[in-house]
């Protein structure tokens, strides 16, 4: 059984969702960033971590990729062109979407007050909006970002969309809005949200 370290109101939700999609047994030990529990498993005090026997995996993207590869789902085969396109979509999700949201969050409440720059939040919002335009082009008429099946970057993108809504950032309508709603309605995602609510 897997053990997820981290509060479900964080990137740990991505790991919980993946485990639900993969129909794996797991438990969640809620822990905030920089908490004693977080430092116990990651010297930087970051979450999530995933415990597998005596091994600890850190970073949500690395955890998702490993889980997908291990269980042969949520991914295209390693070495295939489809996997390369999937990995490119993952990098886009992390570098363009997640990064814009994290930048805004840092200057809204994460950094000490004297290091926050109000204007950066406006820049981050503009970068997020541009990433959403790029997402529409990348998505095209495909049901998922890298083809016909749900893969790791879809989970990251959907999680980021929920994060954006909580930060009062506007999500696109049209094809991207439809795509995000489909992801949110998946049974495994609904189970993940219910678990997150129960642990809050």
From TrEMBL:
Keyword list, A-Z: Transferase
InterPro entries listed in its UniProt record: Glutathione-S-Trfase_C-like, Glutathione-S-Trfase_C_sf, Glutathione_S-Trfase, Glutathione_S-Trfase_N, GST_C, Thioredoxin-like_sf
Domain GST N-terminal per the UniProt entry, residue ranges: 1-75
Domain GST C-terminal positions: 79-200
Signal peptide boundaries: none
GO molecular function, one term: transferase activity
Name the record gives this protein: Glutathione S-transferase
Organism ancestry: Bacteria, Pseudomonadati, Pseudomonadota, Alphaproteobacteria, Rhodobacterales
């Amino acid at each position: 059984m897997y053990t997820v370290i981290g509060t479900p109101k964080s990137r740990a939700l991505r790991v919980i969702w993946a485990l639900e999609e993969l129909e794996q047994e797991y438990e969640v030990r809620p822990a905030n960033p920089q908490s004693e529990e977080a430092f116990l498993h990651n010297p930087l005090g970051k979450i999530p971590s995933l415990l597998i026997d005596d091994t600890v995996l850190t970073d949500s993207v690395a955890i998702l990729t490993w889980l997908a590869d291990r269980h042969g789902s949520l991914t295209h085969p390693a070495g295939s062109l489809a996997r390369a396109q999937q990995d490119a979509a993952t990098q886009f999700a992390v570098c363009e979407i997640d990064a814009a949201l994290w930048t805004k969050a840092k200057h809204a409440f994460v950094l000490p007050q004297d290091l926050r720059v109000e204007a950066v939040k406006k820049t981050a919002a503009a970068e997020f909006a541009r990433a959403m335009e790029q997402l529409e082009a990348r998505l095209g008429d495909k049901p998922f970002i890298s083809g016909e099946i749900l893969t790791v970057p879809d989970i990251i993108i959907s999680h980021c969309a929920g994060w954006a809504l909580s930060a009062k950032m506007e999500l696109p309508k049209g094809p991207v809005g439809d795509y995000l709603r489909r992801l949110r309605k998946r049974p495994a995602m609904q189970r993940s949200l219910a678990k997150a609510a129960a642990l809050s």
